[in-house]
Structures are given as C-alpha cells and as structure tokens.
Amino acid sequence: MNKIIRIGTRESQLALWQANQVKDLLTAQGYQTELVPIKSEGDIDLVTPLYEIGVQGIFTKSLDLALLNNRIDIAVHSFKDVPTQLPQQIVHAAILPRGPVKDLLVYKSNTDFLAQPDYVANIATSSVRRKAQWLRKYPQHQLHNLRGNVNTRLQKLAAENWDGAIFAVAGLERINVRPATSIELDWMLPAPAQGAVVAVCREDDTFCLEACAAFHHTETALATYIERDFLRTLMGGCTTPISAYAYIENNIVHFTGELCSLDGTQFFSTSRQVAIDQATDLGQAAALEIMAQGGAEVVAQIRNVSC
User: Fold this and answer.
1) How would you label 240-256 residue by residue, b for 16+ Cβ within 10 Å and e otherwise?
2) Would you state the CATH architecture of domain 4-96+196-216?
3) Cys-Cys with 50: which of 55, 144, 182, 202 at CB 3.0–4.6 Å?
4) pLDDT per residue of the chain (307 residues) written in tens, 0 to 9
C-alpha cells in the first residue's frame, strides 16, 4: 500500500471533520492518506442566496473537477449537498453511518416568541426547504438569508438583530459548537440524505473503490438512496422545499416525504412502510403519489422561479 490516497475536502471545520472520518477509516486499514483542501464556489460567495446562485452542486463542483483532473483520489461531501445526478466517471465509493438528521433553532434569548401568534419574529436560514417549512408553521415571521460555514453563521446570528437561526444538528454537534440556547425542531422534516457523509471517486479507480468498500454502510445507503430517489423524481435537483426521511427498523423501511410551495402555503405529504426487500422503488412511488395529489402544479411553479 505505497500509494498515498489524496482526500479532497472543503476547508470549513465541518468539512474537515468529515474528511478526517474517511481518513481515519482508511488509515485503520493500513492505507496512507493525505488531505487536500479545495475551495468551492459556495464557500467563496457568502452573500448571494443559494437559490440565486443555482444550488445544484454548488459545494461539490470544485471537488468533482479536482477528482476528474486527477488532483485528488477521493472527495468527501455532505451527502445532502451532492446532486442526484453525479458527473460522468464519478461514483459513490462509500456512505458512512448516518449521524443526527434533525434541524434545530438556535435562539437569542428565549423561545417565548414561538407561542405568540402576533409577534413577527426574524429567523435566518439559507435553506429554501427550511424557509418553506417555517413559514407553513409561522406565516407571520420574517425570514432572512444566512450564508457561510457553521461558525460564520453562528457569529452572524450573534451580530444581527434576529430572534434565531436554523441549523442542522449534525453540523453543530460534529464540531462541538451547539449552543445551549438551541432546541430541536421535531416537526421539521430534514433534507434528503441530511446527516450522511459520502466519499466519491473515479469509477475506474479500483484501488480506492476497494479501500472504501470496507466502511460502506448499507443501511444508511438504502435509506438515503430512497430519499434521493424521492427528490430526483420530483425535481431532479433544483432548489426546492422538498423533505424526506427514511429509516429501517426490524427489516421495515419507514419513509416520510414532503413537498411545500416556496411560501409554505401549499403542502403535500406521504408516509409509507414497506419490507426492506421491497423498498427499491419506494422513493419514486412516494414522489409520484405527491405529484398526483396536486404537487405537480407546485413543482411547475418552483421550476419557473428557481430553475
């Protein structure tokens, strides 16, 4: 094993945490590795809302190019950031065991405002999905754009006159920066593949494919593939208020999927439970059900606005 596996990663603390998980797993098998930090377009432009940039692949394109140009051998991503259609010649090498999937609200002083129907709270997030779900529950609130890595967003929240901001539990807990002033949003369904980490490599790189196969987590892979099939069937990857979560218990796959309009006023949901050996088309079937409920019109509206 004289070959050094070059692991590409974004430069944020969270991205480096994820890349080091893969590095440690490879090192434990006796492979030699090194991290190669690479800036993404999403890390450079921290002002423009993601839906205006065109979010598909915004955090992965630079690493994909480095992979295809043979500057790195493996790229490590938050799986929710990865487009449902990978570039040609790039494949999933391993999906790691899933971490926390929920979102949480980091608040300034207290959460009393959540119970005050006439109070116009100021809430920050860059996620179209979170905005739509929040407006569905709190239509009177004002939503503000919040970009940057986890630490930057926490600093911006502290500096602005906002009541709170929405984060992923996994992102805060993995780098030990979750504030005491935070509550998990049990009612908010996560993004497809939220909380999961994926390593990708070139499809002809049998060395890296074999190295990563040892820590590929099949249960997480099945759950996240179902969620991403739901996303792909509905929209194919544009910036959308689409949520999905699948988990496996006693060989049964439990799935819930949701679609919101951008302003949260229209909402479609489906829940299904199927045997694990019959779950191959679960995400696609659930998405078609949403479309038949009336979701197709909302999808068309969103395409006109954001795609």
Assistant:
1) bbbbbbbbbeeeebebb
2) 3-Layer(aba) Sandwich (3.40)
3) 55
4) 579 999 999 999 999 999 999 999 999 999 999 999 997 654 444 444 444 434 455 678 999 999 999 999 999 999 999 999 899 999 999 999 999 999 999 999 999 999 999 999 999 998 999 999 999 999 999 999 998 899 999 999 999 999 999 999 999 999 999 999 999 999 999 999 999 999 999 999 999 999 999 999 999 999 999 999 999 999 855 578 999 999 999 999 999 999 999 999 999 999 999 999 999 999 999 999 999 999 999 998 888 765 5
Which residues are catalytic, by number? 81
CATH code for the part of the protein at 103-184:
3.40.190.10
Between 3.30.160.40, 3.40.50.2300, 3.40.50.300, 3.40.605.10, what CATH number should domain 229-306 receive? Answer: 3.30.160.40
pTM value is: 0.91
